[in-house]
Amino acid sequence: MCATCGCRADEVRLTSVGTSDAAGQPADHHDDHAPGHTHGHAPGHTHTHDTHDHPDLRTHTIQLEQRILAKNDQLAEDNRRWLAGRDIRAVNLMSSPGAGKTSLLERTIRESDRTVSVVEGDQETVFDAERIRAAGARAVQVNTGTGCHLDATMVHRALEQLQPETGGLVFIENVGNLVCPALFDLGEHRKVVVISVTEGDDKPLKYPHMFAAADLVVVNKIDLLPYVDFDLARMSDDARKLHRNLTILPISVRTGENVEDWHSWLSEL
User: Fold this and answer.
1) Which residues contact 130 (CB under 8 A, 6 or more apart)?
2) What is the rounded CA–CA span in Å between residue 111 and residue 183?
3) 3-state secondary structure 75-95
4) Residue pLDDT, tens place only, 40-61
């Protein structure tokens, strides 16, 4: 978890792509930091205990993680109410790097009959936000620096800057990572995991928390199935052992195969 992995929220930068009001400065450094902020101390540091005097470091780490997640959950509820008050549905899109999240969003923006806005999460660059903008949607880039996930505070700041249209869709493209993003509620209505057939069919067993948290698994790049060793049935069975009612949607963003099923799923949000 991020209390022990070294994530730092003080390096977060927000940028509105395609506008003149780029907010590329580091987040203000004060006591009300975003969840996951560690002040640069060693993992497990709680500001109240000398861990050298307490051999059970695991206990202190768990306590710190619980406080971080509790604060994040409160802020996530604020985000959820903010979105509900504007009749906006939000989807937290998670994957490992290269699975095709941004390509899926580009196609969704071009084909959707609803207004789409995107919060883009990456450690560095505005590459993906620029792609989203070119596809025709508003985007705010959140650069997390050494951080490995988005949290509710980052999303709150991004939504205020993004100002998505009432009745529209907001996609939160999380940092490419199949571990920490599963643990942080952002205020979204649904969690979607995107995997590709080139990654292997063992992902549910390797990353169980991610698949247990998901509402939908999009299996992308099925046009490559003849050329890779990927057992879709095995992957689906393993994923449903973690989440019995999990919906699994095999698609190809490149060819468009089954993409209409993705749009149908979105229309029911």
Assistant:
1) 17, 18
2) 31
3) HHHHHHHHHHCCCCEEEEEEE
4) 443 344 444 444 454 455 665 6
pLDDT (tens digit, 9 = 90+) per residue, 8-30? 556 678 888 865 344 444 444 33
pTM of the predicted protein model: 0.80
Digit-coded pLDDT (tens) for 120-170? 999 999 999 999 999 999 999 999 999 999 999 999 999 999 999 999 999
Q: Which one-letter DSSP state was computed for residue 228?
A: S
Contact 247, 216 (CB under 8 A): yes
Q: Tell me what the pLDDT averaged over the chain comes to.
A: 86
* Spatial CA neighbour of 37 closest among 86, 81, 71: 71
Q: How distant, in Å, are the alpha carbons of 26, 43, 139 from that of 10?
A: 6, 16, 22
Residue 101 has pLDDT above 60, yes or no: yes
3-class SS letters over 170-206? EEEECCCCCCHHHHCCCCCCEEEEEEEHHHCCCHHHH
Tokens at 166, concatenated: 């009432």
- Cβ–Cβ < 8 Å for 238, 204: yes
Angle at 177 between CA 173 and CA 179, to 5 degrees: 120
CA–CA distance, 185 with 159 (Å, rounded to integer): 15
Pairing assessment for the beta strands 138-143 and 13-16 based on DSSP bridges: antiparallel
Residue 104 CA to residue 216 CA, distance in Å, equals 14
Please give the C-alpha separations between residue 231 and each of 70, 98, 199, in angstroms, as whole numbers: 38, 19, 11
Q: Is the dihedral of CA 214, 149, 171, 111 positive or negative?
A: negative
Integer Cα distance of 120 and 118 in angstroms? 6
